[in-house]
Amino acid sequence: MTQQEITPREALMRLGASTAEAIAKVLDMFVPGAVERGNVTVLADGASPFANVARGSIATSVSYVDGVTGANVFVMTPAGARGLATAMGAPSEEVAEGAEAPPLSELELSALSEAANQTMAAAAAAIGVVLGQEIEISTSDTRVLDDPVAAADIYGTAPHAISTTFVIAGESCRLIQLVPRAFVVRMVRAIDEESAERTGPKAGTGSAASANGSAVDSSSHSLALQEALGGISLRVWAELGRTRMPLGSALGLPLGAVVDLDRAADAPVDLYVNGMRFARGQLQVTEDGEWAVSLDELDSQGLRMLDLARPTQSQPRAHVESAAEVVEPDAESLDNESEDQTEDRDPTSKSDPETPEVQEPEVEGAVT
C-alpha cells in the first residue's frame, strides 16, 4: 500500500475504529457484557456532529493540548449516564413509577468524571498508536448539554469529525471526535511507513478499518493498542470492613471514636479495582513500613478483567490464581483514599450483591 492509496477518509475510519475499540474495552470493565459497538461514520464537510444530540444529554470531553485544535466528546442520554454512574458505584435515587427522573446528583457526576478520565485516556492511547506518537489531552470535563446547538462554542470546531455509536445497558451513546487536519497528515504518514515495513503478500493488505468501521486488523496494530491500554491508571483500594449506623449517630461521632466493623482483625480484605471486587487477600506491612496486600484468590470479576486486559495470554487461569503481592500506598495515602471513597464513591458494586440498599435514614461506611 502506498501513500497515494490512503485517502483522508480511510485514515479517519481507521482512527475512529481504533478509538472505538479502546473505549469499548474500558467501558466493558465498568459494565461487563452490556457494551455494544456500533458503526463509525466520517461526517461530510460542514455537517455538525451535534445535530442529532438531544437536549439534556450528558457529555464528557477532553481536548488536545499539543498545539492542535480538536476534542473527543462522549455523549450519553441521562438514563445511560445514570446507569454508568451506578455501575461505577454511585448511589442512585429511587424514582416513583411514572415520576420524572431527577437530575444527576453530584456523586453521579463525579463517578462519570472518573469514568471519563479512563475512557478518554484509552481514546488518547489509541490515537497515539495510530499516529505513532503520544497524544496529550486536557483533564476531562463533564456537563449537561442544555443547548446542543451551542456545542460548537463549547468544544470548538475542526476540519474533520467522526461519530461512533455505542449501546450501554440498552441506552444509546455516541463518541464524537473533532479531528484536526494535522492528525490526518500524521496518520497517512504513519500508515505509509507501517506499510513500507511489511514484506510479502501482506504488504498490500494494510490494516485500515473496514467500510463500516467495525474492524481493525488484529496484528501489530492491536498489539500496540493493548500495550497502550495497559498503561492506563485505575483506582485500586483495599477494604478492611463495613458497618451501618443511624445518620444521627454518624454525625455525632467525636474524634477518636472507635467504630466496630463487620470483620475480625485477621479476616481477609477485599481488593477493589474501579469499584469492582477484584480479589481477596491478607493485609500486611512491608519492610519499608508500607501497606501491602498478599492476594489469596481472584474474584470472578477479577478473572474477567484479566481476560480483557491480556486476551493473548495462553497461561491457564489456575496459574493466575497463585498468590501474588500488590503494594498499596503508605498509611497516610491510604487514609486519604478512604476519605475520597466516602465522599465521592461507594465501593459497592454489582459483584457484591449481599450488600443491602439503604432504605432508611442510616449510613453505611467502608474502611479502606
How would you describe this structure to a colleague?
The structure is a single chain. The protein is α+β, with helices and mostly antiparallel strands. It has two domains: 3-229, CheC-like (Chemotaxis protein chec, 3-Layer(aba) Sandwich); 236-367, Surface presentation of antigens (SPOA), CATH 2.30.330.10. Helices cover 33% and strands 24% of the residues. It is built from ten helices and 13 strands. The strands form three sheets. Strands 1-5-6-3-2-4 form a six-stranded antiparallel β-sheet. Strands 7-9-10-11-12 form a five-stranded antiparallel β-sheet. Strands 8-13 form a two-stranded antiparallel sheet. A hairpin with a 5-residue loop joins β10 (276-285) and β11. The protein is globular. It starts with 7 loop residues before the first helix and ends with a strand.
Blueprint of the fold:
Layout: H1 8-30, E1 35-42, E2 57-63, E3 71-76, H2 78-87, H3 106-131, E4 141-145, H4 151-155, E5 160-168, E6 171-179, H5 181-196, H6 220-229, E7 236-239, E8 241-246, H7 247-251, E9 269-273, E10 276-285, E11 291-298, H8 300-309, H9 317-320, E12 324-327, H10 331-344, E13 362-367
Antiparallel strand pairs: 1-5, 2-3, 2-4, 3-6, 5-6, 7-9, 8-13, 9-10, 10-11, 11-12
Helix pairs in contact: 1-3, 1-5, 2-3, 3-6
